[in-house]
Please model this.
Amino acid sequence: DSGVTQTPKHLITATGQRVTLRCSPRSGDLSVYWYQQSLDQGLQFLIHYYNGEERAKGNILERFSAQQFPDLHSELNLSSLELGDSALYFCASSPSPGQGYYGYTFGSGTRLTVV
Amino acid sequence: AQRVTQPEKLLSVFKGAPVELKCNYSYSGSPELFWYVQYSRQRLQLLLRHISRESIKGFTADLNKGETSFHLKKPFAQEEDSAMYYCALDQGAQKLVFGQGTRLTINP
Model:
């Protein structure tokens, strides 16, 4: 599968804990974007990395951090988890900053449930 | 602040009827607008973009700068059009801002 891969698909954890979500972009894509989708907030942009460098930040909490590694995969770290962090976290990729002709390629998401 | 608004969370129409999903935006620059679609149990994917002025699966969207709108239209709805639709604004290639989404249901 040469698309965007996100692991794990589901994650259940307790409040106060820390988790790491992983994203492997589509082959050849240098940009990775993270989004949070919750019922009341819709799709919220969190952060964008291009070729290992942070390019843009959105509504990302200080408890959250991300990085992109030399092999271009990205990890989103969520710490001191609260019930309100329960959401679907999407990763998307594109060849360069921006959408290009075909738009972003989205992963299937990681569903995080904080109990 | 840049914002994308989709006023309808839910929209239900009958098969064969016209469909219009509303999208309004606020942006100080020259906007690049898109429609993304998410079919049941599938990934979010690009449906169309305003600069290409294309028709995809019978859908079209016209950018109206005067009304700051980018409504998605289809003259005759089909059952397979049932999905979640998101309007999105590209803010200078660094991030894509999405609206809240509209769930479209086509009734037989």
Observations:
- The radius of gyration of chain A is 13 Å.
